Structures are given as structure tokens and as C-alpha cells.
């Protein structure tokens, strides 16, 4: 027994040393991804929420689920079309309620109608880039702490009304050296990304590390291949986002 205990202790020490040697970036990259999957069940309602990255030209007067016009041309449409194909036997309904320009406070203003009333079983939120960008442009006085405070209030409201909803959090991202985004965005944007990770852990959500996803994608093609301005996606970038979104569900 003592030998076994010694073996386990040595093994844990070795593992601990290896983890310490792993970069912080890699550690963040896997938070909420490898360990968290969202199960899709019969009759589930799936809601995509966010800003222009999610909106992507959808017809906002079309409020129907599973409707092409209601989804725009971005990652939400690509992910939804895959979901409806793969889970054709589950009678799921999928909505897109992203609105261009939104920050977390704008989500809160329309949350009752555009989230709570829809009663989603799975809620995907991709928000935060405008919370930073609008502050950077002088059009908003928020901060990363404000972002966290408002985000948590939004999720608390959601879980009070929908205690069993399963959450997917998309990380806000910026692809450097493509039009609007340059080195000056960092490290401040990274603090907003840290907030998204912290919220993921606190609310037991699935997490999609879009910053590292696009960083890796740039090894295959430059940033302008994936985004039009460092934030909004090209067709390839939308597919990349959808691919990784789909990896969070089963």
C-alpha cells in the first residue's frame, strides 16, 4: 500500500510539473472545451445570441425558427444548418437573435423577448467585442469589469427564469493586422477574454476559445482570409467558427 501511495504521489508531482511547464495560453485554450459537451435532446430549442458576428445580415423581421432568411450568412447559419441535418430526428428548433452593434447592456434590454420568452434549452452567447471596441472608440464608458458585471447579471436573470438551460460561451476575438485590429488592441482585449473564461467556469458553461482558433488558422492563411476587418468573418472564417461551435455539442 505504501509503495502504491508513493507511486501515486510521484505521478501527481510529475503531472503537476508538466502542467506548470505548459504555457498559460494552452491552459486557457482548453478551459470548458475538452471537459464540457452540451447534449442535444428531443424537442430542444437552441438560441444563438450576440452582436454583428452572430447577426451577419439576418432578416430581423423574420422570427421563425429553422428559417434561412432568419439566420443571415455567418457561423450561426452554418452551425444551425448542420444541427438540423444531423439531428433531423430530434425535432429541434433553432433561432438566431444576434443584433449588430450590441454590447451586453443591449442584450439585457431585449432579453425578455429575445431569450427568456423563447425558453431555450441551449443558449449560445457570442458577445464582448463591442464592449471593448466601443470603449476604444470613445463611444462607451465601460470596462472589462463592467463587462463582467453586466454579463453575470444577464446570466443570473437567465438562470432564474430558465434554471436548466445549457450555456455555450463564445470568446470575443480580434485578428491582428486586418484593417481595424492591430497590436494596440492587446493586452486590453485579453482582459475581456479572461472575463469570458471566468464566466464560463463560474456558470459551468461550454467555452469556445475563438482567439486561439483564429491564431492557429493564421498558420494556414493570413488574417484577411478569415476576417474582413479583424472582427467580422469571411465565408471561411464563418465556417471555422461554426466548425468549432459544433464541437461543443453532441
UniProtKB/TrEMBL annotation:
InterPro entries associated with the record: Ester_Hydrolysis_Enzymes (IPR051532), SGNH_hydro (IPR013830), SGNH_hydro_sf (IPR036514), TAT_signal (IPR006311)
Domain SGNH hydrolase-type esterase, first and last residues per copy: 50-238
PANTHER family xref list: SGNH HYDROLASE-TYPE ESTERASE DOMAIN-CONTAINING PROTEIN, THIOESTERASE 1/PROTEASE 1/LYSOPHOSPHOLIPASE L1
Name this protein carries in UniProt: Lysophospholipase
Organism the protein comes from: Sphingobacterium pedocola
Taxonomy of the source species: Bacteria, Pseudomonadati, Bacteroidota, Sphingobacteriia, Sphingobacteriales
